[in-house]
Each structure stands twice: as C-alpha cells, then as structure tokens.
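Note to self: the last two entries modelled the partners one at a time, which told us nothing about the interface. This time every component goes in together.
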Amino acid sequence: MAIIEVRQATKVFGPDPDSILRLLDEGWSKERIYREKHHTVGVNNVSFAVEPGEIFVIMGLSGSGKSTLVRMLNRLIEPTRGSIYVHGEDIVKMNKESLLRVRRKQIGMVFQKFALFPHRTVAENVEYGLEVQGVAKAERRAKALDALRLVGLADWANSMPSQLSGGMQQRVGLARALANDPDILLMDEAFSALDPLIRKEMQDELLELQEKMKKTIIFITHDLDEALRIGDRIALMKDGSVVQIGTPEEVMMNPANEYVERFVEDVDLSKVLTASSVMRRPETIGLDRGPRVALQLMRESGISNLFVVDRGRKLVGVITAEDASAAVREGRSLEDIVIRDVPVVTHDRLLYQLFDICSSARHPVAVVDDNERLIGVIVRGAVLGALAGHPVQAEEVRVDVS
Amino acid sequence: MFPKLPLDRWVEAFVDALESGLAPLFNFISFCVEGVVNGIADLFHWIPALVFIVLAAALAYFLGKWKFALFTAVGLLLIDNLGYWDHTVDTLALVLTAALISVVVGVPLGVWCAQSDKVRGALTPLLDFMQTMPAFVYLIPAVTFFGLGVVPGVIASVIFAVPPTIRLTNLGIRQVPGDLVEAADAFGSTRNQKLFKLQIPLAMPSIMAGINQTIMLSLSMVVIASMIGAQGIGADVYGAVTQIKTGQGFEAGLAIVVLAIVLDRMTQNMVKRKRRGSNG
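The predicted structure of the combined assembly is written out below.
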C-alpha cells in the first residue's frame, strides 16, 4: 500500500481561493487566473502515490509549485482542496493534536537553506524534534548523537551551526530529521545550496544511508541530473501541475510532452539509461538440443548467434552459426561448441559503463537479472543508437545468416 | 458652519465614567504600583551609598569593560558628593518600576502583535497616538485616577515609554527567518514551544533594544512626573526651573544624565552579551 497518497490536491494563494477553484474546474489557466483574478495557483489538481522505501523526486523549475506541494504533505501549507493520505490517514482532515503527532513521529523535513537554529548547538538542533515531544534529556541526547554519528558529525555535537561549512550544516539538518526516526523524509531542495562537488557527495551519502534505512523520501529539486541520479521515480511539475511521473528512464525515453522533452534534451543519456533499456529479447536454446535445431532457429530469426541457457534460464554461453554448421557436419553436440566466456552485465548497469565491454566483445553482451537469469542481449551499435536517441528495435539489429 | 464638536466634554465624561466605574481597579493598581516603587526605593535606600556604588561598578565591569565600570563609579560618586543621592535613588526606583511594568505589559503585547496581523493593525495607531500625544496630557487623567504622588508618575511614564518595547518585540519576532519557523513547525512544535524555544531567544536582541528605549523614555518622564508630586531628582530640576536656580538645575540635570548613561550602557551591553553568547 502507498505510504503517501495525494489525491487531486490544489492550492490557490489569494484572498478568496475557494472562488478560484470553480474557475480552475472550468479550465482557466494559471496565467489567466493571475491576470484577471490576482490569485496564484500554486498547485493544480495533483495526484500521486509514493510506495514505502521509494525515493520519489518532484522536479520542476522555480515557480512550478514543487515547494508548495511538499509543504502540503505535512500541512505547513493548507491545501485549498484535495486529500493527502499518510499511512492511510487524511492529514487534511486531521485535528491539531493528530497533526502534531504526524509531524513529530512520521515525517521529518530537511530544508534548502538548512534552517538550523542559530542559538542552539549542533546536538541541541538535532534533538529539537525529540525535545518538543517531551523526551527526557539523556535519552534525546543519546538519540541525537546516534543521528549525528550516521552523518559523520558526532565530534561536532557541541559546536554552533555557524562554525560549520554548508555541507556539514546540511548533514546536521539531515540528522535532525532522522533523530525522530520518521518513516518519511521530505527534502526540499536539500542539496541545492551546496556547491557541485559537495552536492554530489551528499547525494551519494543519501543513497548509502537509504540502503541502510529504507525510508520513504520525497525529494524536491530543480536539477534534472540530481533527479535522475537519486530518484526511483520522478514527477515533473510545470505551472502547478504534474506533467509526467515515471522512472528516470521512462522520463528520458518517452517524454510526455514538449516541456519534458526540452528538459531532458541536454542530459547525458549514458548516465541515465541502463543496460535493460538498450537490450533486446534474446534468442535462446536449451543445452540439450542439437546443432541442427540451433541452426534452424538462427535462420528463422535471422541472427548469427544464439544464447544457451539451462532449464532455469540461467546463462550457459553462446554458440555461433559457424560453429553450429561445423557441428552438424562433424556430428558434435552443443555442449562441445558452446562458448562459455561470454561478456555479461547486470540489467541495472549504466550505459557509460558498457562502452568498454561492448567495443571489445566479439559476441553480443548478455544481460542478466539479479538471479543471473538471461533477460536480454546488447548488440554492438545498440548503445550508440540509444545515445543518439533511437530506441532499440529488434529489427534494426538483425544480422542475416549466409 | 458646524458648531464646535464638544470633544472636550466627551473626553471628560468618558474619564469621569471610568473613574466612577473602575475605582476599585484603579485603587488596586495604585496599591500594587506603590508597593513596588516603595519596595525598590526602600531596598536602595537601605543599601549604603558606597556599597551601592561598588555593586553598580561591579555589574558594569561584568557587563562591559573596566572603562565603563570606572565611569559608573565616578559618576555615581559625583551624584553622592553633590548631595543628590537619595533623590537619585527615588528616581531610579520610579524608572525601574515603570520599566518593569512596561516589560510585563509590553513583551506579551508585542508577542501577540507578532502572532496576529489584526492585533498589530489595531495596536499600531494606538501606539502612535501614545507616543505623539504630549506627555503632559497623560498627567491629567493619571491624577484623576490615581491622585497625586509617585503612582500617576509611574503610570504616565509607562504609557509614554511602553510603545518601543511592544514595537521591537513584535519586530524581533517577525524578523525570525521564515524557514526557521517552518522548521519548528515541521518538527511538531506547539505555538508556545515555537515561541519560547525559537522566536523569543532569536528576538532577544531586538526585545532588549526595546527595553533600553523604554528605560530611556521613562527617564525622560521624571521631570514631568515631578509636576504631579513624584519625588526624586526630577523634582529638583522642576524646583530649579520654577525658582530660576541655574546651578541647582545643572547639578540635578547632570545627575539625570549620569543615571541615563549608566542605565543605557548596562542594557545595551546586556544585548551584546546575548549576541556574543549566541555565537558560541
């Protein structure tokens, strides 16, 4: 079940937001409402669901409504209309006490400009969320130190935030959000204020932490590279609406519209696309079959080699048409001619990591899943084709057998 | 032409009504204020002048530098030498009482202003009115409600001096950066937790600046307050003016100046100490 579900959430800023809802329903655009009614539509009829353990990135340029949207998830901003379910409870309908409980126990937040309390030490900042819950001093200090240890700043517990660099301050911000042990982390442009090298380091660290913690993370960013790097799924926003939701690859390969297309056109595809996006369906044969069958199969599908798998579809090796016809003449079995030294990659390998393997391989590269089962092959040219923007079509890479 | 509006009679009727209707309240306030002023004055009188001066210089040293401590000691010794010590202490009691009441009334009002735009909208013109209306005018209803003596002097001083505390408390809390307030909210603070753990600590320099202004303004009221019978150094100045005694006027005026400088530096240094403290 989804841990967060947003249903048709809308936020209108201005003196009479309810009257604007009707205009939105009639199809008025954000600009027209701003021009004629002087109301700002922050978020317009957005729906999505986030699964537990997912890093869900909300991406858009400034003014696209992403910050407003994330603030509605813990009701720092009240939605004008719509429902927001956290663990199945609609927080829009919650009373004050329940909302405080959700904010204290279930949702942690990390801010763009760190938002550390300047009059409190690092440890006092981290234990703030526990302090407002009334956790005893010794216990909350211990938890704060645990959280600081997670981000590698335990030695700085008694420093003031102003003595720390930007990257360190944001680690404190992250530790503060983690100290309450919430299931959900809201990260509002959390790394945008950091310089590029530190930003990348923090992204890696977040991914590493996420491996251990399995939180549900809602990550806001205006940086597509960042979104593609850390997002399990990405929601692209424009003018308060969600334009597309999908995995990084789906967004790259099938932009929902021109806006998304423009957004993604400058991206280094080789760092986004994975092996599974350029592979094609493998033609396979069992090891117990004869070379004649193999040759027949190759002829039918117009290819010059076949991958050999066992009964569990685990990869055994590859046979070439040449070897197969020799085997037919000499009466040998597939066992004798199978080449076991085949280049293999896992399905989630990024394209830029495939360049070397593909260029030096004499046979198509085998793609296997996490259980070492063969799920696809990558023929030479497919990688370059994908980078040039041509999705792989099996027909294009067929080779005739003479 | 319209006939003249009988504004004067309206105000008088209003004040009369207040006086007859709220007499017990005014008596109670009068009783409390008098108790505080006399308590402070008695305490200060009980301490020998030299001990008091040493204590004041020590506090000055603790808050500031040795130069300020030296100034405090020399200044207060001068007042003692000129023979104005007892009156200065009376004035100090009046000023501190007025400042105390201003803080007790002003800080919560300032907080309320910061939390509600409606309250701020209602209070701002009232504060403008309180500050621009000539201070003498407050003396008249103050005497009506509280009689002659130190109490109406304190009340008039409070009315004149409380606006800066309210304004700067409001300003200080509103100037707490929005993302910090958001962070406090996001971690599930109640309104009071947010106020006491975040907003007031961060607004403290601004609040202290307001209190400093309030003390200075109530000090500026002491001469006026003496016109309705408040004892102290103000009465000496007022007496010198009515009898055209230039020398006595200068001496008493100088005592007020010394007192003003000492109080001003002390409260300002409290703000600075706070700042230094918050930076580690």
